[in-house]
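Recap from last week: sequence in, structure out.
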Amino acid sequence: MIKSRWFIATITVIGMVAFFLSATIYRSPFDLGEWLTAPYATWMLTQGKNPYPVRNLQIPPRQELSMMALLGKKMFYDASLSGSGRQSCASCHNPAAAFAPDNNLSVQLGGDDLRHAGARAVPSLTYLYRQQNFSIGPDNPENESNNLQQAAALSATVHAQKNARNTQISAASMVPQGGLFWDGRVNTLQQQADGPLFNPVEMNAGSVATVAKKLGHAAYIGDFVQLFGPGVLRDPSLLVSEALFALARFQVEDAHFHSFSSKYDAWLQGKARFTDSETRGYVVFNNPAKGNCAACHLDQVTREGLPPLFTDNQYEALGVPRNSAIPANRDQLYYDLGLCGPYREDLKAQTRFCGMFITPGLRNVATRKAFFHNGVYHTLEEVLNFYNFRDTAPQRIYPVGTGGHIEKFNDLPQQARANVDVTDPPFNRKSGDAPAMSDRDMHDVIAFLQTLNDGYTSPDIAAGP
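Predicted C-alpha cells:
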C-alpha cells in the first residue's frame, strides 16, 4: 500500500514537472533542440535574463572635457557660423534626438534661407568614436566577437548568418568597410565636420576666410588664442582647421555621444531583464531563418570586451525604393549610387560597388524618424515591412507600372541592380514565398530595438541564476 502511494505520488510529481516544462517550452521562442542543446542558457533567456553576464564591459569612463573639447562644444551650438546665421551643428544633430534630426523630414533643409533640401538622410553622430578608416579588404577584425561574452547567451539560439552578398566581391574577399557619411568618403570626425559646414544646402558657411572672420568675432575666440597662441588668428586656414579639430574632440570626449546607457547594455551586464516581447525580438533578430538582422547589425561584445555598435561597418546594396520627396529625384536621370558617387569620385569605375551604402549602427534607432540613406521610411514598422516583403511581395514596396510591371529596385539604374543583395536572408526569398517574419515577429523585433535607446534608468531585477 505504501509503495503504491509512493508510486502514485512520484508519477504525479513527474507529470506536473513534465507539464510545467512542456508548457514552458511551448510558450518560449526556442525549439526543443535548443532546450536540449543548451538548457541553462535557454531557460535563462526565457526568463529575460542574460545567461552569461559580462562582468567587465569596456564602457568609456565619463570624464571632464578638455579645453579643446569645450571649445568644440561651443562651436557645435553656434548658429552664427552658418550662412543663414540660424543653423548650427545641433540643428540637424539634436542631442535630445540622439544627435540626429528631431523631425521626420527625409532630408534636412539648409542654405542661406533654410529652404534648400539635401539629398540624403542625416545620420546620428552617436557611436562614431570607434569608426575605422574606409578600406576595401578582408572583414574588419572588430567584427569578430569574444566567445566568452554574451555570444554565450546566443549558444541557446540559432545564429544570424551573412552569405556572399555579391559573387564578384566575395570571390576576391574584398569588402568595403569603414569611413564616415553614407559613402565613407572621409575618415575622421574633423573631416566630417568640414562637410556640412561648407555644403551650400547645409550650413553654407561660405569660404574658409569667411568662417575665420566669424570665429574672430566669436565670444570664444580667446579660447583659440589660449590653446594655439595669437599666431592662429593670422592664418585663416589654420584657425578653421583647429576649429574642426576641436569639434571632433567634443564628439570623442563627451560621453553623451557614446554613453552605452541602454537597457541592452544593462542586460549584457546582468543588470536588467527583458520582457517576453523583447526576448522574442532578440531571438528573431538573431535567427537566420527570420530577421537575420545580427548578420550585419552585430550585437555581440567584441574580443576586447567593447560593447557592440550594432553594425559590421560594411556596405550593402539593399535596393530601397526611390523617395519622391527628395527634390533631386525629380530628375529621372539622377541616381544616388553611394560608393560610386555622386559625392565621392574615387570609386566610380568600381561598378560592382554602385548602390552600396554603409550599414548604420542601430543604437537609438527607435528614436529616429527617417531611415535608410534616402529617408524613404519613417517608422520601424515600415523598415521591417521592407525587409519582409521586398522579395516576397514586391508590389507592396515598389511602384506598379503599366501592365502590372513592378518597378523593383527603382532607385538604381538598370546596370546597378545586379549589385543588390538577393542572397542573404531574408532577401533570398522569391515572390509568393511566405515572408520571413510574422506580424508578431516584427512587433517583437521593434520591442527589442527599443532596448537599444540610451537613457535606461529604471531599476530592474538582476539577471542572476
